[in-house]
Every structure is written in C-alpha cells, then in structure tokens.
Amino acid sequence: MSYILPLVLGFSIAFLAVILPGLINMTAAKISLQESKNEAISFAAGAATIVFFQTFIAVMFARFISNHDEIVATLQEIGIFIFTGLSVYFFWIAKKPKKLKADRIVKGKSNRFFFGMLLSMLNLLPIPFYVFASMGLAAAGYFSFDKIPVYSFVIGVVLGSFSVFYLYIVAFKKIEKKTEFLMQNINIVIGSVTTFMAVVTLIKLLYG
Asked: Where are the transmembrane segments (predicted)?
C-alpha cells in the first residue's frame, strides 16, 4: 500500500491538472491530425519524459524543505495563498473557454520526441505546483518522502500526464467539440481539489 496510494494520487492530480486544453495537449492533437498517431505519441513521450524530471526535482525540493522547520511554516503560508488563488481562478475566472491554436507551432517534421521534450521544458509551472502538492499531501498524511512513495508518486504523475496527452491524440475531434463543457466542469473539480489542499495546509499550519 505504501506505493499504491502515492501512485494513484500522482496519477489523479496530474490527470486533473493537465486535462484542460493546453499547449502540449493541443500540439499533440495537431501532430496526430496533420502527420500521424505514431508521431504524436512520440511527441507525448518526449513531453512525459521531462515531466518525470520536473516532478522528481519538485518532490526532492519539497523533501528538502520539509526537513527544515524554519522555512516550512513560511512556505505553508505561501501554499495557502497559492491554492486559494487557484481555487478562485478555477471557480470564477476560468469560466470562458479559450481555444488554443497549435497550428503555428507544428512546423516541419523534426524528431517529435525531442520536440516534445523542448516544449515540456519551456513549461516550468509543474515544478512549483508539485512542490506544494506533495507538501500538502504529506501534511495531510497521504504521502511521505520515503524512496518508494516518492518514485510511485512521480511515476503516477507521468502516467497521468501521458494519459491525457494520449486522450487528446486519439479523441481530439470529440474533445474539441466539447471543450466548453469540459472546461466548465473540470474547473469545478480542480477548484475543489485546490480548495481542499488550501484547507488541509491551513489546518496543518494552525494545529500541526
């Protein structure tokens, strides 16, 4: 069980965080439509590879922080504001869907694996996101920074991210038609998750 729960949590958090139409998702879909499914999968694999390293770095940084009590409280306070801000964003601001265009990005037929790595490296948001996510889960008692849970969580994040990429690759037509419905409903789910994280972090800060 020490590896199953972190795996499931990592998968679930990543799936919800990546499911909204974004640059990597839309690019993978466009490559699938304009070139081939195999090229798109290669692109998604490259992006997921970078996600692995980004998540691992984030969790290692979170473990380092958790071992230094003098900065944990400060970061927990920052985390409360971040998760609260994200909750407000997903509940109120992100109600109008924005269609992302990947046409200008899909150029040439260079190695799609490395192209996926490049685009994923340009996205630095996963690092701070998974720092606070892992710290929040650890504060709630659902995660520990031991070796097995860490690798399980990281693998779960990679699998969750790749699953979304693959979903866009194979079902882009249907997803495109239901983008507004998807975004309006998934925002509620993500907003609920970030609200939960903010509450758990606040409780931990007050009574921990």
From this structure: 6-28, 40-65, 71-92, 113-142, 148-169, 181-207
What whole-number distance in Å separates Cα of residue 14 and Cα of residue 126?
Answer: 9
Specify the number of domains making up the chain: 1
Q: Mind listing the pLDDT tens digit for each residue in 114-140?
A: 999 998 998 878 888 898 889 888 877
What is the enclosing helix (H) or strand (E) of 88? helix 69-88
Q: Return the closest-CA partner of residue 2 out of 169, 207, 148.
A: 148
Residue 202 has, within 13 A of its CA and on its CB side, a CA count of 11
- Positive/negative CA dihedral, 178, 179, 180, 182: positive
Range of the domain at 143: 4-207
**pLDDT tens-digit series, residues 23-42:** 788 888 888 888 888 999 99
The total number of residues written for the chain in this structure: 208
